[in-house]
Amino acid sequence: MTPEDFPKTFAAAFAAQDSAALVGMLTTDAQVVTLTGAVAEDAAQAGKVFRQEFAGIFAAAKLVTGRNRLRVLGPGLAVVHQLYVVIGARDEAGRTLPRFGAATTAVLLATAKGWLVVSLTLSSLT
């Protein structure tokens, strides 16, 4: 994965509710804040949070990519700001929620394993 690939790769893994693929995009010590406000201090904890969210609110959710901005901060370091529309999220009773906007900010680092996310913050825009 490259920084340019990140938005669509992330959206595809999210749509597949593939927590393992999402964790595979992270460094082991990555910090993650999810759309539900959960905070994970490492990749293993992020995997647990993703699995919980995919068993609940995001069990049938998809991310539709919108505008993005990639900023290369130096050799091997980039920030990706991505806008998404979240569709298919469900409330506690299983009812489909209205679509809503979300933003993702990801800091990516080039490693021996390729580009990985060291910090990921997802925010609701509504």
Give an overview in words:
The chain is α+β, with helices and mostly antiparallel strands. It has one domain (6-124): Roll (Nuclear Transport Factor 2, Chain: A), CATH 3.10.450.50. 22% of the residues lie in helices and 45% in strands. It has helices spanning 6-15, 19-24, 43-54; strands spanning 26-33, 39-40, 62-74, 77-87, 100-111, 114-124. Strands 2-1-6-5-4-3 form a six-stranded mixed sheet. Strand 1 and strand 2 (39-40) form a beta hairpin. The longest helix has 12 residues, at 43-54. It is globular. The mean pLDDT is 97.
List the helices and strands and how they pair.
Elements: H1 6-15, H2 19-24, E1 26-33, E2 39-40, H3 43-54, E3 62-74, E4 77-87, E5 100-111, E6 114-124
Parallel strand pairs: 1-6
Antiparallel strand pairs: 1-2, 3-4, 4-5, 5-6
Give the number of domains. Answer: 1
- The coarse silhouette is globular
Instruction: State the helicity in percent bands.
Output: 10-25%
Helix/strand/pairing category: alpha+beta
Q: Which ranges are low-confidence, i.e. pLDDT below 50, for 5 or more consecutive residues?
A: none
Largest sheet: 6 strands, mixed
Query: How many E strands?
Result: 6
In angstroms, what is the radius of gyration?
A: 14 Å
Mean pLDDT: 97
Write the H/E string, N to C: HHEEHEEEE
Helical segment tally?
3
Q: Return the CATH architecture.
A: Roll
Report the β-strand fraction as a percent range.
Answer: over 45%
In what order do the strands lie side by side in the largest sheet? 2-1-6-5-4-3
